[in-house]
Design brief:
The protein contains 4 helices and 8 strands. It is of the alpha+beta class and 274 residues long. Bound molecules: zinc ion.
Amino acid sequence: MRSKVTKAFTLVEMLVVIACIGILVVLILPASAKTKSSSLKFACLNNCKQMGFGQQMFAADHAAGKSVYLGPLGSLTGTFLSTSTNGNGTTSQQADDDLNWLHGIQGNSNAYVTTLQTFVCPATINNVRGNVTTTTVYNNTVFKTLLDLTSKAVDKYHTTGHSYEVFGFWRTYNLPYFPRKTLTSVQHHTNSSTANLKIRGTISGPSDIFTIVDELEVHTPYRENAPNPYAAHGLEGANVVCADAHCEFIATKNWYDRYSMSEDDSSSQGKPYP
Ligand SMILES: [Zn+2]
């Protein structure tokens, strides 16, 4: 009499298969997370490139006196709302993170970056809404601006606004006001830092100078703009647009040196977390 042969898996075989699947999942998951993080950085870099091109067109138009925006001729970045007061008591165009100058506003044909999502880093949950507008009067003309582009969503828990920061001014502390970055000044600006002798006396040049930064700024003591756990790309680093319109991802380990060189600033504001 022949013995009965079973065709089903034994319990041991099943356990071995389940263990193998488990090991594969553990191996694959971190790799897929890393791929996702790289693709978000790349998509963000693409946003930066759009803004970089827009910035060059804005500067050319502004230099030719075609723009309605205030500020010295040849400004690399603009701003629309003007509510700030300088240290010397005069009002100035320092609505820091208003990006309407890039997006364009109703009543003004200068629209350099028309897609709203370009102003949102894909690694944040910030968003901008195309239906939230406000009006601003300049030279007796009423302009309709996009409200969400006048403010920056401060972190992942604020879901309206944009997620990029304008670096349109020299962060130089010994002046009565922050002078604007212009086509001329980015060619000739000499770093005057007394805190960082490494950069003192150097001319950084357009490729070293940030104009738009993919960062959030409000989390003391990690401000200003240093890669930190609250920012879009966390502790990895951040994308920047430079004055010559090139864009790059700057890793956290290089951030402070690059920030100091760009902003002529060696204060703790550029120091990365922790
Ligand atoms: Zn980003």
